[in-house]
User: Fold this.
Amino acid sequence: MKKVFIRTFGCQMNEYDSERMLALLKGEYIPCQEPKEADLILVNTCSVRKKAEEKVYGLVGRLKHLKKVRPELIIGVCGCVAQQEGERLLKRLPHVDLVLGPQAVYRLREALAKISRGEGPLVDINFQKDFRQPLIFPELDGDRPVKAFVTIMQGCDNFCAYCVVPYTRGREVSRPPEDILAEVECLVKQGVREVTLLGQNVNSYGRKERGFPSFAELLREVASISGLWRVRFTTSHPKDLDENLMRCFAEVPEVCEHLHLPVQAGSNRILKRMHRRYTREEYLSKVEKLRKFCPEIALTTDIIVGFPGETEEDFKETLRLLEEVRFDEIFSFKYSDRPLARSTNFEDKIPEEEKARRLAKVHEIQERITREINESYLGKVVEVLVEGKSPGNPELWTGRTRTNHVVNFSGPENLKGKLVHVLIEGCGLHSLRGRITNN
Ligand code: SAH
Ligand code: SF4
Ligand code: F3S
Assistant:
């Protein structure tokens, strides 16, 4: 059997695609841990920020010496940098054999067959018209995971001014509901208890396809699959978050009380320049409504600091919004110019040092809020789905609360895959600690 080494950058959709590629290769390749052992190396790339893209060039560049020693080694670059660069990537990295865009990863076997017939190097960055890839049912072996991702749509139609994703992932296409349900059922049969439905903007699921359910309807159908205990989803665009979806948090027991709702900025002027199509007030009123339906819901968000033209006053509006909403956790980034993204041509760019200062300020404020929220768990008993032993301490088990907080805790053997109750006795910035209780 030949060996494949795969390295994944970027978002959960890339992780999902990497798993699918491994599933496609099954029977011919087995995964290995070191590039130097591999017959096939796949790098699944992200281009959302410049730094992510640079990492790819660094890593793939360093593989050149392996190819010198073993010319039969096949090196493939997949994902968003592959889509963005296409043929240019082969010019810059001539030792690469294969360039596959995110919607072409399902054609990996055909591509490899062509390369072995001597038809490489090969570039496939064609988009699909629909999302009817061959169903590749994941066969989970060995140490079976308790949770899994399921992609329900590809691409994005929103064209936020800073973002490369609509160019790398193409137009929004929703996956047929029967395929999604079949995949989740297959995962559940193999012991998966929690799924996260993935898309760049899941709230607009099915809007373009005739006869498809809405996202809220799909969510209810997925949640009704017997043996599935928890359902999550990401990402939601605030402009498309409606009452039907909010109701699911209150009415569907399997839907976990956590929502990732990227706000990006707190100032209306900047939101407008970002082409986000909601105002600060609209965002806040959706949060308020959501909390009426589900008071215990945990919220997380993404923030960009230093978008072109962001003044000190605009930035302070972002800080005020953090205080007002009190997110459980945030992911914050310095604005980065991306090829094709509209804001790359905007004037009044913010200097690097200023972006760094703003980012540090955001971190400082959010750290305090996250600590305060984590401390509010002390003395409480929470439901945890046990994922396995804690990577940092094999004496402890690890899992997540319904609100998506990591909990490390002590307890008896054989807890993996079980739902347990844990008394919270301590907390850090990134996790809670506790011990299993009998109630
Ligand atoms: N579809 C999702 C996620 C997109 S990428 C959404 O709409 O939220 C994940 C995050 O990366 C974004 O939410 C944004 O905060 C950040 N991001 C995207 N482009 C960026 C850029 N050019 N510079 C800095 N951060 C960026
Ligand atoms: Fe990018 Fe905006 Fe689409 Fe998210 S919604 S992927 S930020 S264009
Ligand atoms: Fe990155 Fe592409 Fe995901 S740019 S964040 S891997 S959609």
